[in-house]
Amino acid sequence: MGRYVVGTATLEPRLRLLVQQLAAELAGCRWCVEHGRHLWRQAFLSLEQLRGLRGYAESRLFSEKECAALAFTEAVSRYTDRAGGVPEAVLTELRRHFSEPQVAALTLAVSGEHFFNPATGALGADARPTLASDATVTGQRRGEGARRAPGSAIRNLW
To answer: What is the pLDDT of residues 71-94, one digit of tens each?
Structure first.
């Protein structure tokens, strides 16, 4: 990955946001999810797409290329749940749309979201219940285990 990613592979900003947001949601990192929402709003992207991210495979809101990247994101996020790693069909579809340097960049984007989950939890960023306004995006009801720390130092970095 280092050979491909360093200075050579770039992802479209929208695609990067899609992949990182799905990875954050699958990792369960509340800080990462909140940060992704913040970036999503800054980019003026559709909330309908953000809400439909988990149902990307059945949605018309995402292109074939985006669906391939999101399927890869899900496969990498659930890598330890599967014997044998990422399904060959997912990799085949991914490589139809992306070069090897882009696949490496996607892998780095997905794994980065999973890296930060234990770090933010250890720093207490997931210490307080989610606000009711967050439920409108995630579909969760208040108090269903979602966490966030509105005033924590780590959240205020962005």
So the answer is: 999 998 887 676 677 889 999 999
User: Using one digit for the tens of pLDDT, what is the confidence trace for 5-45?
Assistant: 556 667 899 999 999 999 988 888 787 888 889 998 888 88
Q: How many CB atoms lie within 10 A of CB 71?
A: 20
CATH of the domain at 42: 1.20.1290.10
- On whether residue 109 sits in a domain, the answer given is yes
Q: What is the DSSP string of 52-83?
A: TGGGGGG-SSS-HHHHHHHHHHHHHHTGGGST
How many separate domains does the chain show? 1
Residue 119 lies in domain? 12-124
The reply to whether 92 falls in a domain is yes
CA–CA distance from 131 to each of 33, 109, 142, 143 (Å)? 13, 27, 7, 9
* Of 40, 42, 48, 35, residue with least CA distance to 18: 40
